[in-house]
From TrEMBL:
PANTHER family: OXIDORED-NITRO DOMAIN-CONTAINING PROTEIN (PTHR21439), PROTEIN OSCP1 (PTHR21439:SF0). It comes from the Eukaryota. This is RCG30854. It comes from Rattus norvegicus.
Length: 273
């Protein structure tokens, strides 16, 4: 188990939570300034300096119950209120979305690009709040400082730790079911096509080398997929093309989301000043 996994788990789940809340606020026609205040309050709490300092200390993952409690409190950091059923559905969406992203990461290291996609989108919610943007940028700096020098093996351990955390979660999500990326038993359908990881050749060739390291034989085989080479590596800089789309906002195209706020949450958001 990696002691460097918790920040990535927290930030990515938090990003997914904000995506869903933003979609629901828009669906309920909450005025823009009031919706922004709700998101600003949550994001400001999520990236609180003292909290992130504790978050980035090497430590074991929280238990599922403890982590759920953290998001219960985070979701209610503003005047918005969710009933228990809404919070349950929200948390299900968060966890299954990030589980899917981890499963689809071409390389273990790409979980960092997924995290950066979430941070990039979060900054889009707070464009008019430079103080909060600074908080998010400071978290980005911490991520690059801590994770930028990790080896492929250390990232593999992080990915394995995340998958162990998610392994018993097979919650069906309507969006995934409609897109046919999830089966009726809650398990995901993994593709056998698309770009291979950056720096990796498209499968289909077996090379045989002698004891001097010289290639002496080459054989081709049918791999059964439709793979292509990655055209470039995603950027790990503060600003840049991540290339990888995992972790971007899948609700931005006005898709229906199976989580519903209580009436009190809508009324509370409407009263935000």
């Amino acid at each position: 188990m990696s002691v460097r996994t918790l920040p990535l788990l927290f930030l990515n789940l938090g990003g997914e939570m904000l995506y869903v809340l933003d979609q629901r606020l828009r669906a309920q026609n909450i005025p823009g300034d009031k919706a922004r205040k709700v998101l600003n309050d949550i994001i400001s709490t999520m990236f609180n300096r003292k909290f992130t300092e504790e978050l980035f200390k090497p430590q074991e993952l929280y238990s599922k119950k403890a982590l759920r409690t953290v998001y219960d409190r985070l979701a209610h950091a503003s005047i918005m209120r969710l009933n228990q059923a809404s919070m349950d559905k929200l948390y299900d969406l968060m966890t299954m979305a990030f589980k899917y992203q981890v499963l689809l990461c071409p390389r273990p290291k790409d979980v960092l690009l997924v995290t950066f996609n979430h941070l990039d989108s979060i900054k889009g919610f707070i464009q008019d709040s430079p103080t909060i943007i600074h908080q998010v940028d400071e978290t980005f700096r911490q991520l690059t400082e801590i994770y930028g020098s990790l080896s492929a093996g250390e990232f593999q351990l992080i990915r394995q730790t995340l998958l162990i955390f998610f392994q018993d979660l097979h919650i069906r999500v309507s969006t995934f079911l409609k897109d046919k990326v999830q089966n009726s038993n809650g398990r995901f359908v993994l593709p056998v096509s698309g770009p291979v990881p950056w720096g990796i050749e498209v499968p289909g060739v077996i090379r045989v080398f002698n004891d001097k390291g010289d290639e002496v034989k080459r054989m081709e085989f049918r791999h059964g997929g439709d793979y292509v080479a990655a055209h470039k590596e995603g950027s790990f800089e503060l600003y840049g093309d991540r290339v990888l789309k995992l972790g971007t906002n899948m609700y931005s195209a006005s898709r229906p989301v199976e989580t519903h706020m209580s009436a009190t949450s809508k009324n509370s958001a409407s009263r935000a000043q």
